[in-house]
């Protein structure tokens, strides 16, 4: 769990590094690390014991195939970004970051409990 949280934090940091106007080489390294990290996501969540402990929903295990696919999409989009940075293609880098961000959000939307939703659920319970 702790390693996963560190992993995700690292991803966030690398994305921030990637969205800056920093040298292409930095972007490439960050994207390569991100791809490596993305490939570790399924392993970090493999054990269902995390259920309830994290903001990951039970859907992760109920729809494991989809979750793994999301992680794989993130990894391949990070690899594309690294490639674009390696080729010094600014438009490719920009698109790559967009796709990457969409992959982060997509998985969170599907598999992560929203803080707001939790509050809403509490409200709904009160009404009953
Ligand atoms: C395969 C699904 C998936 C992908 C792809 C994904 N995440 Fe997450 N992320 C999660 C889940 C599930 C949690 C909740 C984790 C928890 O509470 O243990 C989470 C939590 C987080 C958190 C909250 C802090 C933490 O450590 O719990 C951050 C920040 C985060 N993700 C950033 C990112 C970024 C940035 C990307 C894209 C580069 C990304 N994530 C891609 C599934 C994913």
CATH topology: Four Helix Bundle (Hemerythrin (Met), subunit A)
CATH class: Mainly Alpha
Query: Architecture, according to CATH?
Result: Up-down Bundle
- General shape: elongated
Uncertain regions spanning at least 5 consecutive residues: 1-5
Helix content: over 70%
Write the CATH homologous superfamily: Cytochrome c/b562
Q: For the residues shown, what is the average pLDDT?
A: 76
Tally the beta strands: 0
* Structure annotation, total helices: 6
The number of domains is 1
Strand content: under 5%
Q: Which small compounds were modeled alongside the protein?
A: heme C
Structural class: mainly alpha
What distance lies between the first and last C-alpha atoms, to the nearest angstrom?
A: 35 Å
How would you sum up the major sheet?
none
- The value of Rg in angstroms is 16 Å
Instruction: Encode the helix/strand succession as letters.
Output: HHHHHH
């Amino acid at each position: 769990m702790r390693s996963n949280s560190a992993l995700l934090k690292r991803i966030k940091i690398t994305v921030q590094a990637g969205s800056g106007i920093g040298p292409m080489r930095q972007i490439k390294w960050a994207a390569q690390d991100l791809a490596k990290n993305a490939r570790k996501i399924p392993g970090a969540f493999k054990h269902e014991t995390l259920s309830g402990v994290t903001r990951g929903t039970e859907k992760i295990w109920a729809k494991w195939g989809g979750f793994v696919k999301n992680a794989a999409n993130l990894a391949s989009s990070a690899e594309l970004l690294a490639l674009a940075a390696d080729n010094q293609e600014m438009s490719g880098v920009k698109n790559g970051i967009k796709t990457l961000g969409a992959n982060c959000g997509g998985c969170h939307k599907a598999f992560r409990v929203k803080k707001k939703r939790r509050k809403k659920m509490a409200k709904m319970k009160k009404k009953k």
